[in-house]
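Design review, sub-item: ligand-bound model
Attendees: FS, YL, KQ
YL presented the inputs for the adenosine-5'-diphosphate complex:
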Amino acid sequence: MRPLHVASLQVRAFRNLAAVDLEPGERFNVVSGDNGQGKTNLLEALYVAATSKSFRTSKLGELVGFGADLASVRVTLSDDGEARVQSVGLKPGARLVRIDDKRPPSLAAYAVRTPIVVFHPGEMSLSMGSSGERRRLLDRTSLYIAPQSMADLDAYTRAMKERQRALETRGPSASDLLEWETLVVRHGLAVMGHRGRAAELVAAKAIEAFSRIAAPELVLEAAYAPSAPNDEGAFLDALASRRSADMRRGSAGVGPHRDELALAIDGHAVRGVASQGQHRAVTLALKSAEIEVVGQARGVRPILLLDDVSSELDRARTAALFSFLREQRGQVFLTTTRPELIDTGDDGGARRDFVVRDGRITG
Ligand SMILES: Nc1ncnc2c1ncn2[C@@H]1O[C@H](COP(=O)(O)OP(=O)(O)O)[C@@H](O)[C@H]1O
Ligand SMILES: [Mg+2]
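KQ shared the predicted structure:
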């Protein structure tokens, strides 16, 4: 796999980071500081630079520093030895992305250039939380496997919204419903195709990773569970027959917005029955799978952002994570309040330490 790393990072007026200029190392970058100083903000800035999106909000305005009009993030990447500059300018409701100062053909084209995977404390909900968390996992990996999937998902979501609006404003016999439903089915089947492929790859890697992390007698099962018939006619019929019910409940009872990546341990659904330790192991297995699938899809080692993960994982799981990270050999940014507890291995030259205080970074 090609090596990829952030060679420099410039951040302006992004959350509490007024001005950051950083030259990270190619391997482990350990960012420490007390709570509330800007550690997560720094990871978020990197994530925005790589994908144009945040991992903690969909509201761009939240990212702009208080009192500023515009936030910006700019990274210079070394990708297989070639330099590239990616930048994102942000203000409420708008973003401007550039690769080498040129406009990419689409946001998806921007977002796949620098594969990045984030692992933050909220991630435990991958195993414990609602199906939405696992759909997003499938969609994040789908993006790197097939960049078109982003447009398909947007088109599906829009068509579904229009169908619902037609239902709720004009009732189940509105004349344009069939038109919207036809679009829902067309884009919905495309979304299901992307998710099915992503799920197959993620499941295989997650099952393998789980057997390494958890007790050897436990077996993880993971499989895509679509929520619509994988057939144009049957999907259309399902929508048509649910019009009145969907109007009353305020959303469609069928369609990939209800998909699931079904997880089970020894035949029992993970969500209801797993112990805390098993949830941790499942989460870690899914994240490891995401890293591997994204990497293989793009032929590159993804950049990894680990936000305070040792606070979520126990000792054994943290050790398993770090041995995985050492094998991966990609660039890692990790935050912690206790840098002395982070064991990045014997190779001291592979680690750089930074300290964040009140939005300023020294290192
Ligand atoms: N848009 C913003 N402008 C300025 N400061 C912000 C903005 N959004 C969040 N903050 C501040 O960022 C700080 C939290 O930073 P964070 O990176 O989450 O801390 P931690 O080091 O604990 O990860 C808080 O002090 C919060 O007030
Ligand atoms: Mg934080």
